[in-house]
Each structure stands twice: as structure tokens, then as C-alpha cells.
Amino acid sequence: MQITGNGLKRPECQDIEPIQNNVDILEEHLSDTEVHVNAGRIADITEPDELSQIDSTDNNSTIWGKIKKSISVLNDHVDTVASETILGHIKIGIGLQTEKDGATCVKIADNLETDDSTTALSAAMGQSLNENKAPNNHASTSTTYGVGNASSYGHVKLSDNYVSSDGAASAGVGASSKAISDVYNTLNNYLTYTDISSFITLNTTYGQILNSAYTENGSVYIRVQPKTGWNGSHSLFQINDSKYFPRDAINGIIGISGSYTDNGKILFSNIGEDGKCNCWITSNMTAPSSISFYYPLQK
Q: What is the reported pTM?
């Protein structure tokens, strides 16, 4: 007679006793509620308070209780949002990225080349910017940036030229090296001192004075007027072209000469410290019909 692994006896023909023994074994097995637990009984099994591993000595009710606890915890975890104190699920939001190994980290740039608004700047790059930023304490009267002037440090723009027709120079605009070079070349090449000889014809009479040389609109004028105590009209004579610009001091006149209607008559001239040129006839005779003035100008 053969006996199965579960203790059942395989009867031989015409042997009723093994069959009866098998019935007893089956009945005992079916009567053991710890071995056969149906779904209705599983629902009534109480879950333990804490998760724990299944032990070899656990009966079916204890095992199913532990299984139910694991399923409950898993269900709660699926619906739980992670927080600082609670484990749960998270979503990968803006500014985060997931590595191949599943690790989540912040997207960080260690340079200033990206234009991605969701990428954070690294602390190393922040330190570099702080070390290389423009100073905020360079102004002598204020720590804020502004236009530099004679009293405060600040921002200054450079200009390569200056157009006099635009009016006064703009505040906070300095001359570049090119502008300085252009000024130097202009002064050196064009505004050279030049002796200019101007010739005018004067119809004067005895006692008139050639007085008050002055400038106006880039030209030099000689005012002809009576000498003190004499009556007479005033006349103006322009003695140079307007394209020449005399220096401020008219006392640069270097010579006066005249031709005369009578021999031996003297033309007296005087250049005062105030820059005025005075000349008159010293004798009671007809004044010279022409006088030449020589003076240095700047072109």
C-alpha cells in the first residue's frame, strides 16, 4: 500500500480499510479552519498595529493579518502626498529633474550662457558674480549709480566728436582719445598763427582817431572817431575776412603804416594794454588816404 505526501493511503483493490482512513484524514483536514480560510473570514481578520515580517510559526490568521496590514499601508502610501514629515509620492515640478538612477535634483547652471528660466544658478556662479560685480561704493556723495560729474563718481559715456551747433556739451559725456586726437590735429594743423595784412582806405581829417579795435562775428573792426575834444562822425571798417578768427587780445597788431598827401607828415600810432589800437594825425594837415594794419590771427 502506498501513502501520499499528505498522509493519504492509496488502497489496493478490495481493501476498504485504507479508504476509510482517507476519509478520516480528509475530514480532519477540512475541519481545520486555520488551514482553510475563505474570503469571508479574511475580511474579519484584524490587522496588526505595525508592519512586520511573516514568521515560520505564524498561523494562517496571523499571516493574513500581516498581509492585510501591508496592503493597507501600500494603499495609504499611494494616496499620500510627501511632506517634510510624511513619506509619500511627489511630482517632478518646474526646476527639478530626475537622473537615470531615479534620483531627483535641482537643475543647476554653472555659467551665464543658458536662458532657461526654470534653471537655477549655482552658488559657485553666484560667488563669482559677487566677486566681479561693479562696486557700489564708488560714488563720493551717494552709493547709487548716476552720472559722473565734478563732485561725484559715476557713469560716464565717451564721445568721439563734439558738434558745436548742438549747443553746450552734455553732462556725463567725456572726450575719447579719438576726440582728443582730432582736437590736437585741428589745433596743430589748422589753427596756426598767421600774419594777416589788411588794407583799408580811410578818408580822415586832422584830429580823427583810429580807435577801439575789436572783434565781432569772427572779424576785426576798427572804429574811426573824433579825438577827444573834436567833433566828427563814427565809422566802422572791417579789416579781415570772417573766416579768420583773431585771438582775444587785439594788441597782437604788429604794425601800422600809411601813405600821405603831403611830405613829412607823421602818422602816430599806439597799441594799448587793453588791446585797443589808437592812431591819429599829429599835424594840422590832411590825413593819409590809406592805412594798412598788420596783425596775427588764427585760422
A: 0.28
